[in-house]
Amino acid sequence: QVQLVESGGGLVEPGGSLRLSCSASGSIFSINGMGWYRQAPGKLRESVATITSDNRSNYADSVKGRFTISRDNTKNTVDLQMNSLKPEDTGVYFCNADILNLVRFRRDYWGQGTQVTVSS
User: Fold this and answer.
1) CB contact at 8 A, 101 and 28
2) Are 94 and 5 in contact (CB under 8 A)?
3) CB 3.0–4.6 Å: which of 5, 13, 18, 98 could bond 32 by disulfide?
């Protein structure tokens, strides 16, 4: 029983900032990779930013220099700081985590999604 819960989405004007947070809880032994994905209307879900257990990060070209992903391995959380937001950043943002449960069974988990709308 593992659950990911996101928070921090909302409506912002272009150029504004948001910070998304995701907390993993339940029968967790360890977490490998974590990441944020988004899905815009009419588009496929895409990777925004990922981070390994030893804090190596990768970003989509469209968000490099504007977004920062971070994680706290003691709290099982991953955050996404989003600055200089653009209308094209609008979409539903999903948290993802590669998790081993207490009997070492590994699988991906997804949060419920949080809406980010960038509009003037």
Assistant:
1) yes
2) no
3) 98
